[in-house]
Amino acid sequence: MAERGARLLLSLLCLTFLYPATTVSRHAEKGTAARPFSPFWFSVEPWDTLAVRGAPALLNCSAHSGDPASEPTAPQARVEWKKDGTFLSLAPDDGRRRVLPDGSLLISSVVHSKHNKPDEGTYQCVATIDSLGTIASRTARLTVAGMPRFSSQPAAASIRLGDSQVLACDVNPDLVPLARWEREREPLELSSRLVQLPNGALVVSNASEADAGLYRCMVENAGPVKTSEEAQLTILPETGEERELEFLVEPLPVTKVVGASLLLPCVVTGYPAPYVRWMVGDKLVEESEGKLELVGGGSLLIYNLTEEDAGVYSCMADITNNTIEAKAELTVQVPPEFLKRPANIYAHESMDIMFQCEVTGSPAPTVKWVKNGDAVIPSDYFKIINEHNLQVLGLVKSDEGFYQCLAENDAGNMQSSAQLIILEHDVALPTPPPPSLTPDTTDHVTPGSRGVANPTGPTPSAPRDVVASLVSTRFIKLTWRPPAEPNGEDLTYSVYFNQEGTNRERILNTSRPGEMQVTIQNLMPDSKYKFRVVAHNKNGLGESSAVLKVATQGEVQVPGPAPNLQAVSTTPTSVTLSWDTPLTGNGDVLTYKVYYMEKGLDLEQDIDAGALSYTLMGLKKFTEYSIRVVAFNKHGPGVSTGDITVTTLSDVPSAPPQNLTVEVHNSKSIMVRWQPPPPGAQNGEITGYKIRYRKGTRKSEAAETTGGTQLFQLIDGLERGTEYTFRVSAITVNGSGPATEWSTAETFESDLDESRVPDIPSSLHVRPLVNSIVVSWTPPENQDMVVRGYTIGYGIGSPHAQTIKVDYKQRYYSIENLDPSSHYVITLKAFNNVGEGIPVYESAITRPQSDPIDPDVDLYELFHAPYTPVPDPTPMLPPVGVQASVLSHDTIKVTWADNSLPKNQKITDARYYTVRWKTNIPANTKLKTANTTNLSHMVTGLKPNTLYEFSVMVTKGRRTSTWSMTAQGTTFETIPSSSPKDVTVVSKELKPRTIIVNWQPPSEANGKITGYIIYYSTDVNAEVHDWVIEPVVGNRLTHQIQELTLDTTYYFKIQARNSKGMGPMSEAVHFRTPKTESSDKMANDQANLPVKPGSNQPPLDHGFGSSHGKPGITGSGDNHILVIVVIISVGAFTIIVVVVGAFLCTRRTTSHQKKKRAASKSSNSSHKYKGNSKDLKPPDLWIHHERLELKPIDKSPEPNPVMTDTPIPRTSQDINPVDPSLDNSLLQRRNSYRESVRNTPSTEPLPPQAQPPCQAEHQHPEPEGSYQDSTATDDEPSASGSYCSAGQPPTAHVRPTHPLKSFAVPANPAAIFESPALPSMPLLTQTGPQLHSVKTASIGTLGRVRPPMSVTVPSAPDVPETSKMLEDVDSVLASLPSCSSLAPRSNPVPFPQSYEPDELTEEMAHLEDLMKDLNAITTA
């Protein structure tokens, strides 16, 4: 016990002595240890994979974080997968694709068909730890091998002893690694004499007797083995006769990745045996073990390719007095490699940092940066330096996370990551670890224990007397005095600065200790900046100085604009400019610079001009240019002139029309179609086209001319069965341009008949599978009838359940999504414009679920089986290598190759190609097609920023191919072509000088919206540059504008922008700010303080006659009091007259009506008092204009009911003069950019709306609870203040407080709309300029009273008593013809049926009390 007491005493002593030091260093000790970097990396990343249809595929990925030794409980990463840039949605019930526990993606059964390829694509693994961030792996391509197909098969051949021969076996390129050869049905062992070429063919060189036999090629896939036809190789004896040298196989250009092996084929035949040698460039290739080897009699095998192996290789074969040579270029690609990986960085807020990333590769890799899995978009604060490095300026806390450098080229892609940690300012920056080039460590650098010693003393106080000693247009020099309490020596200083309106603060440090000045460069002219200075000592950051606001100078010492700028087009490619000397040169003008830009492009070019004129040369023909001129003096560039536009002169077209196609129409006519020349080659307005054609090989030509917009022409009057050639040229006012190549077509021998339906198809065959049936057929035997297509019907037991229509060129179709083990009936009919022909029927039973596909039958064999003959025994091969090259925002060029053409790909026959394309957004878009006789087609008129799919089909005569593989292309972005929509303006609650603008994105954004610009002004007709601008960054759809002028109408427009520029402005909407700031507060006070029962205090009135908030009323107020007294007296007299009249009318009720009322009272008295006291609804006395309405209303049982007393609005409005301070405030805000603050529109209820003005007696009453909307604006007072009878003065909307209860009005939102049926009748004639017609904002003021606005009386509760009461009162009032003029109404007056004259007398007594209170207020 004593020991514990001694320890306690010692502890108290220590605390006593250490307390001062603890107090001084408490802030410094707070978080002085920088938290270490958290390693987060991929231990396994996915790689390109070749998958087989129906087999499983695995993409490996594994992410780890932390150091297992120091952090055994490191958080686990959450792994997701992207396919083609979009996250995969892997539902729990998706058993086919799932993410394994280590993060790998397993596809249990790859799905792949001609029209459905859901698994093929580019995959990326994305790992996330919520407390750290997100990293993305390299991308990997999953390719699915197609069905084995032989485009060429081995054929019987003979070979002489010692000579060479090639046996063809061309299979799908992706299946070549799976191909092998057999001789006599036994596997063939390859050697240096027997070599398999890259395309699958077999080379037999230096032949011997043992090489004779039957050869066949086999492809081993996951399914059945595909076997080619067998071919007999015969060995012949050598005769000794000389044979010419001939290449059996020549080398072709090839591209390979470094590290791979390559076989350059070169097979030569001849006698005597040729000598084959290889050269690369001008050097002879020599064999070397493990690197270069000659195989197969002359082919060159290169192992482990390097960049030095690239070049042009020549295969040369020599015999006596004869040499032949073949060349091919070898390109070696190198995947990206990191020379310097990004390193982890510690930083403080406001600092500038740079992530370095140096990569190499061939071709040169492109680099992009990703932050926490999202692409970094370059901006003012995120900049790409030297094409690879990422610079971040003015750090903020949200910049913290993982940054990745992604390098990619045609050979592959790689990524490397680094972490950015932003420390508190009182934590010193630790020394970063040295960067490493080891791939296993750089991406997850783990720093050592590089802590900073805790500060042991106080920090400096704030620097004193910070001043801007030098202010220029683009730099500011700051000076200051040392702190009053430096608390140390060798102080260093940091200057924090930011441009007004931005929240990113940047930092600039002094270059050496003790220096007390710094120059901040690269500022914007005529801009406001904020500066503050902080001193450092060895203990850390000190106090900050006060903020110094400095504005840079405007660049006023430069020349003014050059006047009288003129441009004249002198030739189709030149424009001559002239201008005068600037009126304000501010010194001698040294030179002029001419800026010109082609319309529609964003690239502006410039050229120097020393005189007052210049001729621009080399321009495009018939093109509009925008031109401006800037004068330069010794201070720099001056003020630019305004842009002028000029169009160069037109010329003849410089290119022929595009996509010429000829289509045989019948035996005597041919349809010719084409597209205009490219826009850049039209050189003027196309006025027409000239079609020249000739018969056969004759030289005489005929010609026809079309109009400028006609892109087709039917050439008729031709001869039957005759070949014609056509070409087309475009015409401008200057003449004809070049013509297209000749295109050939042959007319039919006889015309096809379409006077009746087609005959029955000649055959129909079905092949049932588990979930599908493949249908194949042949056309009708009578091919003189026109067939437009085929109709396929199918169903279980009946062929009429489903119907499918296919093209007339199609010969087979696969019916999908069928039930296993089901009996289907199938019908096929040919149809044309007359109707459908006779059907042919077949039936089939789909296979059981467990029944595998017959290994002996292949789909290819099915479609080409002997029992399914086709009209042409040699069908056309589909085009290959389809590529889509994006040229602009609306143009994509589609190219392809045709394997049925010669190697030079020259078209010599009458074939033509059909290109079809579509986009998947929306999903129901229709396919579009175009015909061409070239191997390319320019598709125009596409939508910007849209993904399109293209495929091609070839047609020759009446033979067609199937559609090719698809190619995809996404058009470029362009500026938005529509404005933001649904623009609305609302007030902010309790802030009458602040409004909130809301809108929706444009319907045609044409790209990703990067921001909006809000324009507002008090003059709708002002020039655009005179409107105030508020920028909105990002895709936000709301913005808050502050410090507006009260009681002022503002007009608002919005413009959207994307990466390509600004779109059109929206239509102007207008909004008027409230009159005063206090009206809102008083209205809210009145609403929040309910009137107590029995109180006679009326609600506050700022209506008619009140000078509150009206700038037009000045003086002592004596005249105003007199006006108020007169108006209130007249109003009181009117109310008394209305009430007395209503009372007299009630007394004159007929005896019949009294009996009826008494009977109703007795019949209802049995249930009138049955309920509790809270069910009794006392009447509500309303005095509204000139009609009397008594309505029952519920009292809220809650202590704070959600009901508010309605403030009394004005019945008229004074004419307010324009506030002279308005222009000044707008000038101060004009052209200023401020950072937008995200605000949520107020949800306060709208003020109730006004009752409609007096209506004629014959008007139909409105139903209960309806709202009659006022059309009056702030400039047009509502007609609700008008009066009905002649001579009756307008009365204020007065609602006195009932002495027995507090009145409440539900705060129902009222819809404001314009109704021409309710014209406004202003009480006071207003003169002034008429406002420009604009669209009114669809949302009114929230939680605010804006005069003039009337009060809408809520409908009575819908209960049986009330309904009965309304019926009785209507019957009473209907019997009073003399009272109709006193109480016109739009709603039935809810007069209680049980009221007797005594009760009315009591109510009148209450009314007299109210009038006394009103007179007391008036006299006061």
Report what the structure shows.
The protein has 1420 residues and is mostly beta strands. The chain is built from 10 helices and 90 strands. Strands 12, 15, 16, 19, 20 and 21 form a 6-stranded mixed sheet that branches. Strands 23, 26, 27, 30, 31 and 34 form a 6-stranded mixed sheet that branches. The radius of gyration is 45 Å and the shape is globular. The two termini are 83 Å apart.
Features:
six-stranded mixed β-sheet, 90 strands, about 35% strand, mainly beta, about 1400 residues
Compute the number of strand runs. Answer: 90
Radius of gyration using CA atoms only: 45 Å
Helical fraction = 10-25%
Tally of alpha and pi helices: 10
Report the β-strand fraction as a percent range: 35-45%
The average pLDDT score comes to 75
**What is the rounded distance between the termini?**
83 Å
Concise synopsis of the structure shown:
It contains ten helices and 90 strands. It is mainly β.
Any chance you could write out the topology, listing elements then pairs?
Layout: H1 2-29, E1 40-44, E2 49-52, E3 57-59, E4 62-65, E5 78-83, E6 86-87, E7 97-99, E8 105-107, E9 121-129, E10 133-145, E11 150-152, E12 157-160, E13 165-167, E14 170-171, E15 179-183, E16 186-187, E17 194-196, E18 202-204, E19 213-219, E20 226-227, E21 231-236, E22 243-249, E23 254-257, E24 262-264, E25 267-271, E26 275-280, E27 283-284, E28 292-295, E29 299-302, E30 311-319, E31 322-340, E32 345-348, E33 353-355, E34 358-362, E35 366-371, E36 374-375, E37 382-385, E38 389-392, E39 401-409, E40 412-423, H2 439-442, E41 464-471, E42 476-481, E43 492-499, E44 506-509, E45 517-520, E46 528-537, E47 540-544, E48 548-551, E49 566-571, E50 574-578, E51 591-598, E52 605-609, E53 613-616, E54 624-633, E55 636-637, E56 644-647, E57 658-664, E58 670-675, H3 679-682, E59 688-695, E60 702-707, E61 712-715, E62 723-732, E63 735-739, E64 743-746, E65 763-768, E66 773-778, E67 789-796, E68 802-807, E69 812-815, E70 823-831, E71 840-845, H4 859-863, E72 880-886, E73 892-897, E74 912-919, E75 928-932, E76 936-939, ...
Helix pairs in contact: 6-10, 7-9
